[in-house]
Design brief:
With 74 residues, the protein is mostly beta strands. It has one domain. Helices cover 15% and strands 41% of the residues. The protein is built from 2 helices and 5 strands. The protein has helices at 3-9, 68-71; strands at residues 15-23, 30-33, 40-44, 51-59, 65-67. The chain has a 3-stranded antiparallel beta sheet. β4 and β5 form a beta hairpin. It is elongated and about 55 Å long.
Length: 74
Amino acid sequence: MAEDEKADKCEHKDLLICSYQVANANTCVELARDVDTGKVVDFDFNRIDGEVGEVDFYCGDCGEYFTWEQVLGF
């Protein structure tokens, strides 16, 4: 079965969120600094509160990516 046929027949039961954007997160951030230069090299945070938008989905069964508008049609 070709990949296109597999995606067409897939019921997308193994649907995962692969990425999303958060607006108004308002969460505390800890900056990690280089010990020699003192410049920021990384950051860490525990939790994000806010409004989730621009959600992209991934189907673990067929390997296809979908937008929220496409998922609404499933």
